[in-house]
């Protein structure tokens, strides 16, 4: 698809850390921009209420996303440490 002029890769929230790393490497190699949902890793038992996401939101913010899809992702991660206050 790069040959057809695409310049972005859209990611989804359930990517494993390894898969997201591979996407990030390919995007960097091709000069692509990352956009999409915030990768969080596979949701195992207790995630996100009793256990944290595998990929921290702060890691994603430092990765140069062009856009983050869906405002609830920003709200969820931004307020997760204040759950009792906003309930």
TrEMBL record:
This is Uncharacterized protein. It comes from Hyphomonas atlantica.
């Amino acid at each position: 698809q790069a040959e057809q002029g695409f310049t972005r890769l859209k990611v989804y929230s359930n990517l494993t850390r390894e898969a997201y790393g591979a996407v990030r490497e390919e995007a960097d190699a091709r000069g692509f921009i990352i956009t999409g949902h915030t990768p969080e890793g596979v949701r195992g038992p207790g995630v996100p209420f009793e256990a944290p996401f595998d990929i921290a939101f702060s890691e994603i913010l430092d990765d140069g996303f062009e856009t983050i899809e869906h405002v609830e992702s920003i709200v969820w991660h931004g307020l997760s440490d204040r759950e009792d206050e906003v309930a």
